[in-house]
């Protein structure tokens, strides 16, 4: 038995005491979060079955869905269902787990431009394309019209397009495309600010995904969280996203950066050195070297008083 010779670096603080701009999540957790943990205590003494709850959420979304333990589990399920020994096309600068999981299942990885129209030129018969929209780490969002050439290429070649929409809630007036050869991955981790609660969902091919997911996959906390999301009917997002958008626009003005999502990349010359300098000021940002961008850092939008400290630190470098 040999380990996989491919390593992925993830964001998020490993130690407490730093203002964490490296994790691109909503800085305003739900007001009802404590109720989730109280409810989870009651649920934890039994096996967790949530088929009826899944159907309720499907009705709320209005599309066929499969509940998963975040997008990460969904990617593993994709490996089981469709990645094995396939030709998998991935943009050059994007989320590292795509390549790791593709290689885990023996896929032939083809790297290409981040531009979807240029990536479309690489699609051959029965390929699988993994595409993050908006993209991580740069926050670039592509409209359905801008994705059309890629969707058409996938349809014409009987291929599959996997759209990771982990950050789409943060995009103002975002629209998500549709298509027969399209699977969309969503998560609550980012938009609800709860990376420690592993729960998300897949849109499309629900019968296939439900057939291979682990039983009891989201546990008591995940079920309790999903209950509150359904009860809340996305009111938390309607309340907090405008706060994030307002701060996002302020950061854009002050630092001269631009993004469609709730995070930015910034060219600082030597990302590794800047990360260490900012740590000494109590601020954690993401070194983008693992994305193939060693001159860039990534940082998210947080609360106004926290953003003030980041702006001051970056402008004084």
**Shape-level CATH architecture of the largest domain:** 3-Layer(aba) Sandwich
Strands of the biggest beta sheet: in what spatial order?
Answer: 2-8-7-6-5-3-4
Query: In the CATH hierarchy, what is the superfamily of the largest domain?
Result: Type I PLP-dependent aspartate aminotransferase-like (Major domain)
Largest sheet: 7 strands, mixed
- Classify the fold: give the CATH topology of the largest domain: Aspartate Aminotransferase, domain 2
- N- to C-terminal distance: 48 Å
Low-confidence stretches: none
pLDDT averaged over residues: 96
Query: Secondary-structure element sequence?
Result: EHHEHEHEHEHEEEHHHEHEEEH
SS-based class: alpha/beta
In percent, how helical is the residue content? 25-40%
Radius of gyration based on Cα positions: 20 Å
List its salient traits.
single chain; 317 residues; alpha/beta; Aspartate Aminotransferase, domain 1; Aspartate Aminotransferase, domain 2; 2 domains; 7-stranded mixed β-sheet; 11 helices; 12 strands; histidine biosynthesis; PyrdxlP-dep_Trfase_major; amino-acid biosynthesis; PyrdxlP-dep_Trfase; transferase
Structural overview:
- With 317 residues, the chain is an alpha/beta fold.
- The chain folds into two domains: 19-28 and 236-315, Aspartate Aminotransferase, domain 1 (Alpha-Beta Complex); 45-232, Aspartate Aminotransferase, domain 2 (3-Layer(aba) Sandwich).
- The protein contains eleven helices and twelve strands.
- The chain has helices at residues 33-43, 51-61, 70-83, 97-104, 116-119, 144-156, 206-212, 219-232, 235-255, 271-279, 304-315; strands at residues 19-20, 65-68, 87-91, 108-112, 128-132, 160-164, 182-187, 200-203, 263-267, 283-284, 286-287, 296-300.
- Helix 1 (33-43) crosses helix 8, helix 2 packs parallel to helix 8 and helix 9 runs parallel beside helix 11 (304-315).
- The chain is globular and about 55 Å long.
- The termini are far apart.
- One of its GO terms (molecular function) is histidinol-phosphate transaminase activity.
- Its EC number is 2.6.1.9.
- It comes from Pyrococcus horikoshii.
- Its cofactor is pyridoxal 5'-phosphate.
